[in-house]
Design goal:
By secondary structure, the chain is an alpha/beta fold. The chain has one domain: Aldolase class I (TIM Barrel, Alpha-Beta Barrel), CATH 3.20.20.70. About 30% of the residues lie in helices and about 15% in strands. The chain is built from 13 helices and twelve strands. It has helices at about 5-10, 15-20, 25-35, 40-45, 55-60, 110-115, 125-135, 155-165, 180-185, 190-195, 215-225, 245-260, 280-290; strands at about 85-90, 95, 140-145, 175, 200-205, 230-235, 260-265, 305-310, 315, 325, 330, 340. The chain has a nine-stranded mixed β-sheet. Helix 2 (about 15-20) packs antiparallel against helix 3. The longest helix has 13 residues, at about 125-135.
């Protein structure tokens, strides 16, 4: 068993050890964990400095997860899946779901209900079916491996998937979406990176949300990837109480560049059941973007995007380009369609 696998085997999945370390009532959180499972690696747990800090909010269950009325599958991913485990939203690229588990379960995850249902992905059947679909669609030039976290698979399993994908002549780009560099940095071994570099052009998209996640360990993980010639991009989610402060977001973006990770997207919080307490207003997101543009390097300025439902795509938001009627925004997507999107009250900020 490798070091990262030993660490993963010690992930916190029950409330009793948490209650013994922090002054919390496990009974108040039990219904939350029953509905939305908890898993926290020892490394990521060690980053918590106090109850309610940005790391705590991202991984510790919260009773508010059971209080909102948001939809389970706002993005209708099931309707965009021509075969099990594959999502085809855009003409030239697809998402291939290759894992149903993560090192740490983020409380804001867009697929938290999917994880709750413990849907198992059978490598031989579901993944092979997805690869067969890609092979039959010449317009597909880009695939994103997602889940769950693809890097929770063994090196051999990842290698097998990449080998099959690289046999498809029209497939140009492979991306791996993984939060392992942030929550389980030991997973990014030199052995893994030597294997991955055989499948270029290959990109890793990771997920830092707060400056305190950039540590010696996570920096080393990203260094291993970049030194193997793998460009690393970062997608941050705008989260209330975590990074919805302009100074915090700017520090995060600047620190990412110091470890050779390119800020790629800031995602507005998804409209997913169990996550409404993380939502900020779009106005706050625009304020953060205004604090970045011109106040730090363009290299440290990602796109701020809203992901629209029913396969309508991502819409980039600039500080002055949103039309509004009350709490309804009118956004133009890549097809030229005008889509209504519900915002929240501006007065919610800072509550």
């Amino acid at each position: 068993m490798e070091r990262w696998q030993k660490s993963l085997s010690k992930a916190l999945q029950t409330l009793e050890p948490l209650a013994s370390r922090f002054e919390i009532d496990p009974e108040s959180l039990a219904p939350v964990v029953e509905r939305y499972p908890m898993s926290i690696t020892p490394y990521y747990l060690s980053l918590i400095k106090e109850i309610g800090d940005p790391i705590w909010r991202q991984c510790i269950p919260d009773p508010r997860e059971l209080e909102d009325g948001l939809p389970i599958d706002f993005y209708d991913e099931a309707e965009l899946s021509p075969v099990a485990g594959l999502i085809h939203r855009y003409p030239d690229r697809v998402v291939l779901l290759v894992s149903s588990a993560c090192p740490t379960y983020c409380r804001f995850c867009m697929r938290k209900s999917w994880i709750r249902n413990k849907r198992e992905i059978t490598l031989k059947e579901s993944i092979d079916e997805g690869i067969e679909y890609i092979a039959k669609k010449p317009m597909i030039r880009d695939v994103i491996l997602s889940g769950g976290d693809p890097l929770l698979l063994s090196d051999e399993s990842v290698e097998d998937i990449l080998t099959k994908l690289r046999k498809i002549p029209h497939l140009e780009i492979i991306r791996i979406g993984s939060r392992a560099p942030v929550t389980l940095p030991d997973r990014i071994t030199l052995r893994l990176c030597r294997m991955l570099k055989r499948f270029h052009p290959l990109y890793v998209i990771t997920h830092f949300n707060h400056p305190s996640e950039i540590t010696a360990q996570s920096s080393k993980a990203c260094t291993h990837l970049v030194d193997a010639g793998i460009p690393v991009g970062n997608q941050t989610v705008l989260l209330k109480g975590v990074n919805d402060d302009p100074s915090v977001m700017k520090k995060l973006m600047q620190k990412l560049l110091t470890i050779r990770v390119k800020p790629y997207y800031i995602h507005h919080m998804d409209l997913v059941q169990g996550t409404s307490h993380f939502r900020t207003s779009v106005e706050q997101g625009k304020k953060i973007m205004a604090s970045l543009r011109g106040h730090t390097s363009g290299m440290a300025t990602p796109y701020y995007v809203i992901d629209l439902p029913k396969g309508k795509g991502k819409v980039p938001i600039l500080p002055n380009d949103v039309k509004r009627n009350g709490n309804v925004l009118y956004l133009r997507n890549y097809r030229g369609e005008i889509i209504e999107y519900p915002d929240i009250e501006k007065t919610d900020e800072g509550e």
